[in-house]
Amino acid sequence: MSGNSLVLPIVLWGRTAPTHCISSLLVMDDLATIITGCHDGQICIWDMTSDLEVNPRAMLFGHTASITCLSKASPCSDKQYIVSASESGEMCLWDVNDGRCIEFTKLACAHTGIQFYQFTIGTQREGRLLCNGHYPEILVVDATSLEVLYSLVSKISPDWISSMSIIHSHRTQEDTVVAVSVTGILKVWIITQDVNRMQDLDPVFEEESKPIYCGGCQSISFCTFTQLSLLVVCSKYWRVFDAGDYSLLCSVPSENDQSWTGGDFIAADKIIIWTEDGCSYIYKLPASCLPASEHFRTDVGKTAEGSIPPLVYSIADRTDKQLLICPPVTRFFYGRREPFHKLLVQGDSAGRLTLWSIPDTSPLQPLSTLQVSSTISLQEAFDKLAPLSAGIIDQLSVTPGSEEPIKVTASVYIPSQGRLVCGREDGSIILVPATQTAIVQLLQGEHMLRRGWPPHRTLRGHRNKVTCLLYPHQVSPRYDQRSLVSGGVDFSVIVWDIFTGEMKHVFCVHGGEITQILVPPENCSNRVQHCVCSVASDHSVGLLSLRERKCIMLASRHLFPIQAIKWRPCDDYLVVGCSDGSVYVWQMDTGETHTDKRDSRGNLQKYSNNSLVVQAMKTNLTDPDMHVLFFDVESVIIQLLTEEAQRPNPTLVSPETLQKAQGAADKGGSFLANKIFKQVKETMKETIKEHLLDEDEEEEEEMRRREEKSKSLSLLEYNLTMDTAKLFMSCLHAWGLNGPLDEVCLSRLGMLKPHCPISFGLISRGGHMSLMLPTFKESLLRQMALSTGRKLSLSEMVGKGTYGVSRAVTTQHLLSVISLANTLMGMTNATFVGEHMKKAPVRPPRPGTPETPKKTAAPPQVSSPAVQGQIKQGNYKRLFSLGAVLGEPLMYRAVCVCVCVCWSQLAAMHCVMLPDLLGLDKFRPPLLEMLARRWQDRCLEVREAAQALLLAELRRIGQSGRKDTIDLWAPYLPQYVDQVSSRKSTCGCGAGCGGPGVGFIFYSQPQSVIFYSQPLTSVSHILQPTSVSHIL
């Protein structure tokens, strides 16, 4: 799929929650959102209510290593941005509201701590990120572009920084950065206005360097209540310093060999300290540490170890808790706006969040234990769902006497056949039509009454869990398209014939479970090209020949687990990288010289159906597979138009007939009609040329025999493209807002209503992805209950909640549903019911061969560009005259017009009527910048949908909204004005809106978008494509 394509993910999580071993956490300032990062690289977004009820909403994918730190990256609440960093040096800027990746970069160093710093230059407020980690300086990074601006460097004893804190001064314009190195030396940098304006890499040296003998510093915190104290927590003691001259005020050692991991001020006279085993303690500071006390600084210079201040609270003693695989992460946060909670938040390796609300008053009895305010884990949230979250083949995996379905442990999708192959933990392999099994899990219909639906095939051969699957022909056409390769825990690699279900061969050459099966590159020797490479847990690598059915090489001398396989075909080398950093180079003993065999017939594959891709994912190797369905809208449109142009019909044999019909109906025609007409002519030419070139009759006969042989295994005869469009449109439609239109969609268009709100996803920059967890519906139910004043059921929320999640999700969904509806409106009788849904349309019969008998049950399907042109223009009256010219029956013409009207109503509802039907308080409007990027999209249907949506949204927000948009984009626009005069203040949008409104003018050299508002006297801003991409 192209990186610029419009791709929408839908995820089927299954009943088992993903592993989420929490490594860092963050609570947003409004105390409404909690962010957690895990050791596997994912980020989870949790919603929190004012009553401290927590519910997981979405999971973000993009990092390839453990998340080391999280920080907010924006000061305002309307744009909630966070930044994350991983062990591999990756940094990502995320939008918390919709999970979009705004910016990402990768540095050569790993950060262990990030703090957001905001300052003012003139009237403009900017943000910086101060980063410390495994390097001897503090990097200052721009919070918007993630670009390193300058660094804070040490002259004296430079070393890695353990922790740092920013001291904001209200008396002066200077802020102070205080940090402690790993050797216990305190460093101080002064940030002035001149430093803030720095945009180069000149280093800023420290103002003060003082040894405080705090080796192994875990955290350093500044007291915001008094602004006169610093808390430094080390593993074996914690200390309080004066923030003025950094004098030691108090030092307390740990008890019972506890290891402190952090702490913070919860009041002017109280601090909270937590340990690596999850326990936390609240201490009351002595009078010598309180600036308001007359005894302040009385113990400076004579503080002795061992004086322990009184303990106020003991929190979260984990003696009775389950054994955790890594220490929990604990942080303290307090709200800066209502509700003003003081929260202690803890996340552990089981994916559990635990919250304590810290009271302002001291308990009546000392050493009281603070009770947990709220606790929840990902798995508990999954278990509370009703109905439970569905997996991709749950209906086929429930065994008698067991409530839990058999877990899917390996998957591979075959786009050319539309089949999904799933290996399970009991050793069986299921072959099932992907769209049909997704429809069963997501949509309502008569299939719910059928047991064992859809038709499937079960392959049995492994004695235990299937660990990996490979369809080699999908990677390279040199492999037989009948071969499927599977590996299991039973040390075996099995080759299957997917057309007959026969087990062709079993390789038993490894001494451990199979972890990977790979395909060698194209330029290997002829013998290796027909092999697959298998990797096992016993640190062995094998080359298994599918043609010879034997192992031609087994490399089994590796001492550590294998992490990477590389190829050097020109030297016949196989390179193996292990986890200890060692590299082994093996000679592939082929016994043959390299030959390059190519297909000499010159027949290229016409079209690869990538409109739907099913990808299995897991957050951890121990997890079962979850499945993400990626719908490529552009590919769906192309496939629909291609099949429409290839429909067999006698009227298509004579292009002159179509040309005359087009001229009789409308000499001008429409652009889409001309486009489809040209496609029809080109398709016919290519078909004739292909058949003339194809002279290998014996190979054709062999292929025909194979097809007949494999017919018995045909799981289901259905139109894959129309089935994909049916699934996609049924999931995207806003059900429940327009009752009559819903009934039309169900009865006439053949769409199906979802069981419950669907977990959509969003793909953003660099392939980063956010996926809604199935528990997001709980947060939506709570929000919609507050807006409507009553509790809604899941059936009422289906469709309504889709367009109330975020603006980016709304934009993607509206673009998809409108462009697909317009495409289907331009097709002939494009409904999801009828005979055409059972079998894909075939090409016209080959010249010189007898024609197949015609079915009389269904009327002929006519694909006329003239008809499509009138449909596109909404001129339904002239369709009857066109149909008469083309020889269509009167009843058939009426049916086509009715179907076109239905698709037109569906497109109009989503384009114009949705804000009013849903309510402005629940509707998240589309993002103008995302629509502007699609204004000249390469796909005509997506382009038209984007233009219609953008103009409708600009009219909806009015002149004041358009002015706010221009003001918002002004910093990113070029600094010149192009004066364009106009005779009158009329709308130039070109959409026939008839009002003054806002308009766009496109120049060819260079391409620019010009915004203007009434009265139109001059063009005030010019937006170039590079400027748009800059702000995204």
TrEMBL record:
Chain residue ranges for the region called Disordered: 837-868
Ranges in a coiled coil: 681-713
**Bias type Low complexity, positions:** 851-860
The WDR72-like alpha-solenoid domain sits at 933-967
Q: Which domain of life is it from?
A: Eukaryota
- Could you say which residues form the signal peptide? none
User: Where does each WD repeat begin and end?
Assistant: 60-104, 459-506, 555-596
Q: What keywords were assigned to this record? A: Coiled coil, Phosphoprotein, Repeat, WD repeat
A single GO cellular-component term from the record reads: cytoplasm
* Entry protein name: WDR72-like alpha-solenoid domain-containing protein
Native organism is Oncorhynchus mykiss
Q: Which gene encodes it?
A: LOC110523124
